[in-house]
Design brief:
This is Suppressor of fused-like protein. Helices cover about 25% and strands about 25% of the residues. The protein has twelve helices and 20 strands. The strands form four sheets. Strands 3, 4, 5, 6, 7, 8, 9 and 10 form an eight-stranded mixed beta sheet that branches. It has two domains: about 230 residues, no CATH class; about 130 residues, Gyrase A, domain 2 (2-Layer Sandwich), CATH 3.30.1360.230. The protein is of the alpha+beta class.
Length: about 475
């Protein structure tokens, strides 16, 4: 099955980060993955506690935390006043906050350790998660953690990380997608609401908690939120998240436990040019393992009938109103997709004579990654629309299991559009898309901006976010 993760979840837009389409699409040349060095600290767990009428899954997580923090049996906890299954807004029942003294001799500063309770199944009675089978994940199969550098003289933990964790949990519950080490989240604002440079998120494995534990309701892993700069996020997008996380472990201001320091003013690449060099070498050697992103995008077929183009322009006029809303409340289909939806034939395959793609600026700025980091390495890249159930997958000639061909480079099956790029066209597109890499501030790019390749009957337009 073709299943690739979308790594650019934008929480306030409820962007769907992962998806699956049934097709045997394979890349001939697999990317090399970069894993974190060593293994996390192993914690020997006591036998599972006897079933509790209160919350057996919660008891199991509390038991683990007591082993890590035996002197903090009653930590400060952020609690959802109205639980999610009762109509409350916050999916996480609790967020426990522990004081961690760190290991200064190992480069781990004193910090606050936040652990969520609620993405896994705490109750096991079906009130929020379906009951799992043996050996299955508990709920979504993971909980979030976060490590925040402790200020000198600080006696109580800040509560703003709890809001970040609740927002990420809302994304998971709304989309049904899980978060994994190596994923990244485009947050686009200081995590604490201040004026700092830590504005984006990478996901890692918590270095102190076990890889996974078994609870009465299934297995639970622990995924740590790591606050990073925009430059570090871009490096993860153009190379791979785990590789960047690995390098951050040796960087000043992050350290082996990836403690987020909101006072950090420079990226790891600025502080240590050797890190920038390693990332650039990784990009040139491996390309990118970011196989797709969520985006505001749509497409129309280019034909002699201009009605489709008029429909697109009309849609552009309405974008301004929708884009200012924090949550996408409606879903839009392109004209061609609407025809497919009317006949409800997900299996129909239709070749297009020409294609006009439209992306918002954030998605469009990743076109160099899609072409140079993926397609020119013999891989594929997908834009999953947040405006509809559609997806656009750009593929290289070496990708097998597709329904495009040299004679039919633009083919749609139900809501899924595939676009085959020849080596010659990929090189032309990479050269033209260099404008996104050369611009110091992408907001300075004059929009809308249209790229056209008439000999291939292909047009791409970039519009404002």
């Amino acid at each position: 099955k073709y299943e690739k993760r979308l790594m650019n979840a934008r929480i306030f837009g409820v962007r769907h980060r992962s998806f699956m389409y049934g097709a045997n699409m394979r890349e001939r040349e697999e990317f090399s993955r970069c894993f974190l060095p060593g293994q996390p600290a192993q914690v020997s767990l006591p036998p599972p506690p006897p079933p509790s009428p209160r919350a057996p899954g919660l008891d199991a997580l509390h038991s683990l935390c007591k082993q890590i923090y035996p002197d903090q049996s009653n930590p400060l906890t952020v609690t959802a006043v109205i639980k999610y299954w009762l109509g409350g807004p916050d999916p996480l029942d609790y967020i426990s906050m522990y004081a961690n003294s760190g290991y200064p001799e190992l480069g781990v500063p004193p910090h606050w350790h936040y652990i969520s309770l609620g993405l896994s199944d705490l109750h096991g009675d079906g009130r929020l998660h379906p009951k799992p089978g043996p050996g299955r994940p508990s709920g979504f199969g993971f909980e979030l953690t976060f490590r925040l550098a402790r200020e000198r003289g600080e006696t109580t933990p800040p509560t703003w990380p709890a809001n970040v964790m609740q927002q990420l949990a809302k994304y998971v519950f709304n989309s049904g997608n899980t978060l994994m080490p190596g994923d990244h989240v485009s947050w686009h604002a200081p995590l604490d609401g201040g004026n700092g440079c830590i504005t984006q998120i990478l996901m890692s494995q918590d270095p102190q908690l076990p890889t996974s534990i078994s609870t009465p309701h299934g297995d639970v892993s622990f995924v740590q939120i790591v606050g990073v700069t925009s430059e570090e996020l871009q490096a993860a997008q153009h190379w791979n998240g785990l590789g960047v996380v690995n390098l951050l472990r040796s960087a000043r201001g992050c350290g082996p436990w990836l403690v987020t320091d909101m006072r950090r003013m420079h990226s790891a690449m600025e502080d240590d040019p050797s890190i920038a060099e390693k990332i650039q070498c990784g990009i040139e050697r491996d390309g990118s393992n970011t196989s797709g992103v969520s985006a505001k995008c749509w497409w129309v077929q280019i034909t002699n009938d201009r009605s489709s183009e008029r429909y697109r322009e009309k849609r552009d006029d309405s974008d301004d109103d929708e884009d200012v809303k924090p949550i996408v409340k409606t879903e839009r289909l392109s004209p061609c997709e609407q025809q497919d939806a009317n006949v409800s034939d997900e299996n129909s395959i239709r070749a297009l004579s020409g294609l006009h793609l439209t992306f918002n600026l954030e998605a469009g700025s990743l076109l160099p990654l899609a072409i140079k980091g993926r397609v020119m390495h013999g891989r594929h890249f997908t834009f999953k629309s947040i405006l509809s159930h559609s997806a656009v997958t750009i593929v290289a000639p070496s990708v097998t299991g597709t329904f495009v061909s040299k004679e039919k480079p633009y083919v749609v099956q139900g809501p899924w559009l595939q676009v085959l790029l020849s080596e010659e066209l990929s090189e032309k597109m990479a050269e033209e898309f260099q404008v996104f890499l050369n611009a110091p501030d992408k907001r300075e790019i004059q929009l809308p901006k249209t790229f056209s390749w008439p000999e291939h009957n292909l047009v791409i337009t970039i519009i404002n976010d």
